[in-house]
Amino acid sequence: MIRTLKYSGVVLATALLASAAATASDELLNMQKNADDWVMPTGNYANQRYSELDQINRDNVGDLNVAWTFSTGVLRGHEGGPLVIGDTMYVHTPFPNIVYALDLNDSGRIIWKYEPKQDPDTIPVMCCDTVNRGVAYGDGKIILHQADTTVVALNAETGAVEWKVANGDATKGETGTSAPMIVKDKVMIGISGGEFGVRGSMTAYNLKDGTRAWRAYSMGPDSDILVDPVKTTHLGEPVGKDSGMNTWEGDQWKIGGGTTWGWYAYDEELDLIYYGTGNPSTWNPSQRPGDNRWSMAIFARNPDTGMAKWVYQMTPHDEWDFDGVNEMILSDQEVGGQMRKLLVHFDRNGFGYSMDRETGQLLIAEKFDPVVNWATHVDLKTGRPQVVSKYSTAQNGEDVNTTGICPAALGTKDQQPAAFSPKSGLHYVPTNHVCMDYEPFRVSYTAGQPYVGATLSMYPPEGSDHMGNFIAWDATKGEIVWSNKEKFSVWSGALATAGDVVFYGTLEGFLKAVDAKTGEELYKFKTPSGIIGNVTTYMQDGKQYIAILSGVGGWAGIGLAAGLTDPNAGLGAVGGYAALSNYTALGGQLTVFAVD
């Protein structure tokens, strides 16, 4: 049987797309143009999370009703969202990482179910809940990155395993939480485990058979991180020889973190992939003097070879766990009177960056929450944040107990992806409005054991009665256009649509719809559990649907997800979000909405 895919009303067989010269990217570049489907975790290669569907709009969104639901059978945090390809929806879960194929023509009937058998000892080495951010599709395969780092290719029609490969070693603290991205004939896979002293990497596997094509580490010798000391640039200047080693003391880079568990983007014209790296290990900055390159950085790489064209480090010598893994959103917009191929990135450190994605030039870096205080500004020439010494967690190589740092370690925004509307020209950003106290301490490295070296407590900023905002951001100016307060952090990925409606979820469990231009709330519905999933939309039989996974968890909801009560547990999140248990409970459900 050949399962069919829809392209603007024309039905093409999957088999017709596969030719000797074609790649999975060719297929996906066509498929992402069809608004009826949702073929990538972030909607398209540009990570815009935007849909051209407009059947649901600001005038009728208030009439949304639940069309159908599906229980995943798993508790803990449900991040990511489903794929919709033709008449089939692919739904994933947290550990044990079940994948369901559901028939949209038959009330969500389960076509097939894949449930991997994983060692439960993987769970304790997953930093911030047992989350998984989604599956990818390409060349008739569904690609899953399991918690134990196994990368699995499943037949999209039958669920049969076509190949599998181990991307890391969970016994050393390496885990898999990120959604894969398929570019050309390769599967791009990152790694999690920065809190266990692993060395971060991006790996490309051949989609056909799972053999490794290349691996680029975040730090180490040039041959490991795949940079050319002369041709690879940082803000227009050559990075120089062994930049990923000589900014570390001794061999600390070998357990240096810089993991790559966020989202990835691809520009087919420039033929570059973009992704960010995470915190250096340990969290205690006095144990790793230097800039600690290339943790906390954005890489632009060639997908065929892995060689880096440019790299930019946002937070040199991180002292706060401000991972740089958040999504890169690609668009073409005018900045300062000149059209630019923009890369927009909302970093954990609280600055929203607008960059030229072809050259790596830094154009704009502004705070997207006014309470950010650890740095005054970013020097656009050097790219360095101007750190306020009061909020440094190490002074003269000594540990310092620091209070009132904004944002907290989970950042002004964590992995929850923003959306961009080409129609409004605005980015819609789910944010955390949270500060912290940070107490570093000395820690030694043991493979497979936590390698953190800090105790945190989190709380709203002084004088604030809320822990989150949902904002509209003008990336051509670096300005907030409007901002809506939320009681808790907004840990859900946003969706913008041509109907001038933007959707997101809340930790209490509400799906919300707001006016794209004004932020006016147009609709809300409380699902069975807190939402940390990403909103998806699709068209089936002429009707537009909105889909969301609910299931509280993730870093913000780790207290509920893992039954933790110590206020300092969950890397400081348990105490900060203690009140969340008054509003929601564990769950695992897909809820699908439509206008009758």
Quick take:
By secondary structure, the protein is mainly beta. The protein has five helices and 44 strands.
General description of the model:
- It is a single chain.
- This protein is mostly beta strands.
- The protein contains five helices and 44 strands.
- The protein is globular and about 65 Å long.
- The N terminus is likely disordered.
Number of beta strands:
44
Cross-sheet strand order for the largest sheet: 3-38-39-40-41
Helix proportion range:
under 10%
Structural class: mainly beta
Net shape:
globular
Low-confidence stretches: 1-20
What is the strand and helix layout of this fold?
Elements: E1 4-7, E2 10-13, H1 14-17, H2 24-31, E3 50-51, E4 64-71, E5 83-85, E6 88-92, E7 99-103, E8 109-114, E9 136-138, E10 141-145, E11 150-155, E12 161-166, E13 181-183, E14 186-189, E15 201-206, E16 212-217, H3 222-225, E17 233-234, E18 237-238, E19 265-267, E20 272-276, E21 297-301, E22 308-313, E23 328-335, E24 338-346, E25 351-356, E26 362-367, E27 375-378, E28 385-387, E29 394-395, E30 398-399, E31 402-405, E32 419-421, E33 426-432, E34 435-440, E35 454-459, E36 468-474, E37 479-486, E38 495-497, E39 501-505, E40 510-515, E41 521-526, E42 536-540, E43 543-550, H4 558-562, H5 573-576, E44 589-595
Parallel strand pairs: 3-38
Antiparallel strand pairs: 1-2, 4-44, 5-6, 6-7, 7-8, 9-10, 10-11, 11-12, 13-14, 14-15, 15-16, 17-18, 19-20, 20-21, 21-22, 23-24, 24-25, 25-26, 27-28, 29-30, 31-34, 32-33, 33-36, 34-35, 36-37, 38-39, 39-40, 40-41, 42-43, 43-44
